[in-house]
C-alpha cells in the first residue's frame, strides 16, 4: 500500500484541474472558493466579552450570507471589526436606560501578508438596561446582506484574487523556502490555499504539492520514530506506541516503525507474563489477572500465558473462580479499549493526511497562534 496516499493526492489534483478547465467559473463559483475566518482580537479590550462574541458571530454571518463563509479552509483571510462609542447617554425614563451610538469598522485582511484588502464603516444605535445590553442591542442591528457590506465583500474577494495573480511567483517561492527550512506544514499550507479561481497560480501550486508532501511525511516519520525509540528505551510503551501510531504508511521509515512496534509488543507481553508469574507466586490472583489481560493473542508467549491462566483458575475455589472470570473480563475489556483507542487514533491520523490540503488545513488551525498570525492583529486597525 506504499505511495497510495501520494497517488491519491495526484489523482485529486489532476481531477480538480481537469474539472476546473472544463467550466467557466461564474461569480457564485468564485465566491465559493474563498472563505473568510471571523475573528475579533482579544486586544480590543473595550468591547465587552458578550458583545465580542456577538460581533464574531455577526461577522461569520456577513461572510456566509455573502458567499465567503465556510469551515475556515483558508484562515489566512479574516473578516474582523473594531467598535468605537460615538455617543453614550442615560435615557430620561423610568427606569433609566443606556443609549449608545457605535461606529463599527469592518475589515477584510490577509494575516500572513499583513495586508488589508477592504474596509467599510457604519453607525448603529442601541438601548439597553446597562452598557453591555446597549452595546449588543446596537450590534444586533447590523444587517449581514446590506449593500454596504456586500460591496466590501466583493471588493475584498477581488483584491484577494488580484493578490494571487500578481504575486504568484513570490508565493510559490515562499512555500518552497518554508520547506527548505523543514517547515513543511507551512509550505503545504501556502500551496494548498491558493484559490482555484486563480487558475494559473493554482495550477502551479498543485504541481508542487506531491513532492513537498512526501518530504513532510519522511521528515515527520524520522521525528516520530526517534521519539518512539526514546520512550521505548525508558520502557514507556504507551508513549512509544502513540508516536508509532502517527507514522504514515507512505513514509520511508514505515517498515522500521513496523519492526519497532513488534519489538515493543513482544517486550511488553514478556514483561506482563513475568509480572503474572510473580503475582501468582505471591498468591495474588487479582494482580496476576491484571498482567495476563495485557498479553495480546499475537504475542509469542500467549500460549504460555493461557497455560498459566488455566493453572490459576484450576486452583481457585468456585466462588473465587466467578470473581476471577469477572475480573479477567473487566481487565481484558479495559485493555482492549485502550488498544482500540490507539488504533482509532492511528486510523484518524491516516485519514487526516489523505490529501496534503487536509494536513495544511489542520496545521494552520492548530498553529495559527503559534505562528503568530492571530497573536496580534492590531496592525489591521492601525494601532
Explain how this protein is built.
The protein has a 4-stranded mixed β-sheet. The chain folds into 2 domains: 4-208, no CATH class; 249-352, no CATH class. 61% of the residues lie in helices and 11% in strands. The longest helix has 35 residues, at 199-233. It contains 13 helices and 4 strands. Helix 6 crosses helix 13 (356-367) and helix 9 runs antiparallel to helix 10. It is an alpha+beta fold and 383 residues long. It has helices spanning 4-21, 27-32, 49-65, 131-139, 147-180, 184-192, 199-233, 237-244, 254-281, 285-292, 302-314, 318-352, 356-367, and strands spanning 37-38, 77-90, 98-110, 115-128. Strand 2 (77-90) and strand 3 form a beta hairpin.
In summary, what is this structure?
This protein is of the alpha+beta class and 383 residues long. The chain has 2 domains: 4-208, no CATH class; 249-352, no CATH class. It has helices spanning 4-21, 27-32, 49-65, 131-139, 147-180, 184-192, 199-233, 237-244, 254-281, 285-292, 302-314, 318-352, 356-367; strands spanning 37-38, 77-90, 98-110, 115-128.
Q: Strands across the major sheet, in which order?
A: 1-2-3-4
Average residue-wise pLDDT: 79
Rg on CA atoms, Å: 29 Å
Low-pLDDT stretches are 1-32, 348-353
- Fraction of residues in helices? 55-70%
| Number of separate structural domains | 2
Main structural class: alpha+beta
Distance between the termini: 53 Å
Q: What is the assembly state of the chains in this entry?
A: single chain
How many strand segments? 4
Shape: elongated
**SSE order, one letter for each helix or strand:** HHEHEEEHHHHHHHHHH
Number of alpha- plus pi-helical segments: 13
Q: Largest beta sheet, briefly?
A: 4 strands, mixed
Approximately how much beta-strand content do the residues carry?
5-15%
Amino acid at each position: 500500500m506504499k505511495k497510495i496516499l501520494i497517488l491519491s493526492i495526484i489523482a485529486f489534483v489532476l481531477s480538480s484541474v481537469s474539472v476546473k478547465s472544463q467550466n467557466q467559473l461564474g461569480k457564485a463559483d468564485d465566491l465559493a472558493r474563498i472563505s473568510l475566518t471571523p475573528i475579533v482580537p482579544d486586544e480590543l479590550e473595550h468591547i465587552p466579552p458578550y458583545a465580542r462574541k456577538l460581533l464574531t458571530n455577526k461577522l461569520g454571518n456577513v461572510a456566509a450570507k455573502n458567499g465567503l463563509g465556510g469551515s475556515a479552509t483558508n484562515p489566512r483571510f479574516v473578516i474582523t471589526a473594531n467598535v468605537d462609542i460615538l455617543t453614550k447617554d442615560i435615557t430620561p425614563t423610568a427606569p433609566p436606560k443606556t443609549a449608545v451610538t457605535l461606529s463599527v469598522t469592518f475589515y477584510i485582511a490577509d494575516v500572513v501578508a499583513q495586508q488589508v484588502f477592504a474596509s467599510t464603516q457604519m453607525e448603529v444605535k442601541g438601548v439597553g438596561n446597562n452598557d453591555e445590553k446597549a452595546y449588543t442591542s446596537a450590534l444586533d442591528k447590523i444587517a449581514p446582506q446590506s449593500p454596504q457590506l456586500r460591496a466590501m465583500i466583493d471588493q475584498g474577494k477581488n483584491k484577494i484574487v488580484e493578490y494571487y495573480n500578481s504575486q504568484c511567483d513570490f508565493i510559490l517561492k515562499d512555500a518552497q523556502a518554508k520547506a527548505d527550512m523543514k517547515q513543511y506544514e507551512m509550505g503545504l499550507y501556502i500551496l494548498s490555499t491558493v484559490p482555484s479561481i486563480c487558475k494559473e497560480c493554482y495550477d502551479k501550486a498543485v504541481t508542487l504539492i506531491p513532492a513537498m508532501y512526501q518530504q513532510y511525511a519522511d521528515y515527520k516519520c524520522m521525528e516520530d520514530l526517534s521519539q518512539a525509540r526514546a520512550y521505548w528505551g525508558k520502557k514507556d510503551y504507551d508513549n512509544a506506541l502513540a508516536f508509532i501510531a502517527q507514522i504514515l504508511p507512505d513514509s520511508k521509515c514505515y517498515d522500521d516503525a513496523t519492526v519497532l512496534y513488534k519489538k515493543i509488543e513482544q517486550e511488553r507481553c514478556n514483561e506482563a507474563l513475568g509480572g503474572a508469574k510473580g503475582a501468582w507466586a505471591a498468591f495474588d490472583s487479582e494482580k496476576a489477572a491484571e498482567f495476563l489481560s495485557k498479553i495480546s493473542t499475537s504475542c509469542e508467549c500467549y500460549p504460555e500465558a493461557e497455560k498459566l491462566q488455566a493453572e490459576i483458575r484450576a486452583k481457585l475455589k468456585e466462588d473465587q473462580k466467578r470473581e476471577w472470570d469477572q475480573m479477567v473480563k473487566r481487565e481484558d475489556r479495559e485493555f482492549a479499549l485502550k488498544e482500540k483507542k490507539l488504533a482509532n487514533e492511528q486510523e484518524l491520523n491516516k485519514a487526516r493526511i489523505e490529501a496534503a490540503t487536509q494536513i495544511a488545513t489542520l496545521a494552520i488551525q492548530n498553529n495559527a497562534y503559534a505562528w503568530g498570525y492571530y497573536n496580534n492583529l492590531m496592525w489591521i486597525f492601525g494601532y
